[in-house]
Amino acid sequence: KAGVTQTPRYLIKTRGQQVTLSCSPISGHRSVSWYQQTPGQGLQFLFEYFSETQRNKGNFPGRFSGRQFSNSRSEMNVSTLELGDSALYLCASSFQGDTQYFGPGTRLTVL
Amino acid sequence: AQSVTQLGSHVSVSEGALVLLRCNYSSSVPPYLFWYVQYPNQGLQLLLKYTSAATLVKGINGFEAEFKKSETSFHLTKPSAHMSDAAEYFCAVILSGNTPLVFGKGTRLSVIA
Description:
The complex is a heterodimer of chains A (111) and B (113). Chain A has no helices and eleven strands. Chain A has strands at 5-7, 10-13, 19-24, 31-38, 42-50, 53-57, 64-68, 74-78, 87-94, 101-102, 106-110. In chain B, the strands form two sheets. In chain B, strands 2, 4, 5, 9, 10 and 11 form a six-stranded mixed β-sheet that branches. Classes of the chains: A mainly beta (111), B mainly beta (113). Chains A and B meet through strand 5 and strand 10 of A and strand 4, strand 5 and strand 10 of B.
């Protein structure tokens, strides 16, 4: 089976802009989770979608949002970007929310 | 409250030496436990997982971990380190039901020739 794919792999934006990241899960997986990884805060959970519904949400401001489509593909959006949003954004998929398999990540740089 | 604690942000071992990376969790019920590895500029790769079957779990690349409920620990070991093992290792836990995966802060493993 193909693994989790994320696009784009690298992204450079300026403060105030918005960005959309995409994640395609492993075929058959219905759960997609998003994480932010930074050197200072480590790996932090953003949100999880299961069968197009947000099932869990981390402690991030409302500028961070996501959605999941009927084919389980997921997108996350960050509006009004801040310098502190620079991070590696990781997507993970699982069959039901148990064992998670990660994609390669999207490296977002905010200037 | 920190659910997962990894002791040592950086561990350095000689090639061929034992690798021991420590992880303790805080939970009153046996959780699901995982170890992931991250190589530079890559995502996380699952090394192994504990899901209440055998307490000694074997993973990929010669790694294994033992679940010890009395010590609330899930330490990762490998008998003989290889240069290719140099990476960041993360312990993670699912505490219950459909709760999110919670990660420790990671341990960077360096292997010295």
